[in-house]
C-alpha cells in the first residue's frame, strides 16, 4: 500500500483528490505543498498529491515553482475535482459576529463576491489550507470567527455551516496531480498529457515563439502555458508547458528534443493519462505512423535507395 503525502490536515480538497486517485493509499497529511513534496523527495512518502491549477484562479504557483526546482519529481496521474466552499463557524456564531475570516488564498479569491456582499467589513486572512483554517476556527480561543472550507471539514472539526456553495461560480474545478520520484512512466493511453518546464538559453526577440514552434510544427496542442520568474532579476522568466500526448509518441518526443536543443534546460515533469480522457485530434502528417513512414523514407534516402 503506497504512502502518499498531501496538503493537510484532514478535510482538505487535496485529501478528497487523493482518495480518488489512490483510494487504498496510506495518507500522510503535511502542513504545506512544499512539505508534501519534500516528503515524496526524501522517501518519507512514496509520492504526494498536490493542487496544480484551478479553473477560476489559475495556477497554484507554489506547486509550479517547487516542481521546477530541487530533486526532480514526475507526475503520474491527475484528478479534476469540483470544489464547493462553505462558510464554517463555531456553533453559536452568527453572521454579524464574523469579524475575521480564515482560508487558503485560492478559496478566498474564489469567494470574493460572497465576501464582498455578505461580510464587507470582515478581515480576510490567508491560511495554509482550507482544513487548517477550519481546524483553527474550531479551537475556542481562536482569533478567527469563520473559515472557508469544504463542508466535510466542517463535519470533521464540528463547525456549523452558515453558508454553502459560496463560490463565485458553481462550476469551479481544481486539478490535482500525483507525483513521485523518477521511475517508469505510465503507459500511453491515447488520451495523455505531458508536462515540462523550459529555461531560455538566452533572451532574444522570438525566443518564446521558437519554443512554441517546436510544438506547433509537430501538431502538438498545448493545454496550459505559464511563465514564472526565475528569481534572478526582473524580466527573467522560465516556462511551464502542458501538452496533449505522451512522450512515447513520436510527435511529442520530437517536440521535446527540439525544445531541448534550443533551451538552457528542459525539465520533463511526466506523461500521464488525462483525467477527462480527451484524445487529441491529430492533423494529417503528425500521427505515429506518419513519423515512422518519414523515418523510413529518410533511411532510404541516406542509403541511396530513394
Ligand atoms: O486547502 C485545500 O483544501 C486545498 O486542497 C488547496 C485548495 C484550496 C482551494 C481550492 C482548491 C484547492
From TrEMBL:
Pathway: Amino-acid biosynthesis; L-phenylalanine biosynthesis; phenylpyruvate from prephenate: step 1/1. The keyword Lyase applies. InterPro entries: ACT-like_dom_sf, ACT_dom, Chor_mutase/pphenate_deHydtase, Preph_deHydtase, Preph_deHydtase_CS. Residues 196-273 form the ACT domain. Residues 3-181 form the Prephenate dehydratase domain. This is Prephenate dehydratase. One of its GO terms (biological process) is L-phenylalanine biosynthetic process. It catalyses: prephenate + H(+) = 3-phenylpyruvate + CO2 + H2O. One of its GO terms (cellular component) is cytoplasm. Its EC number is 4.2.1.51. The record marks 174 as: Essential for prephenate dehydratase activity. It comes from the Bacteria.
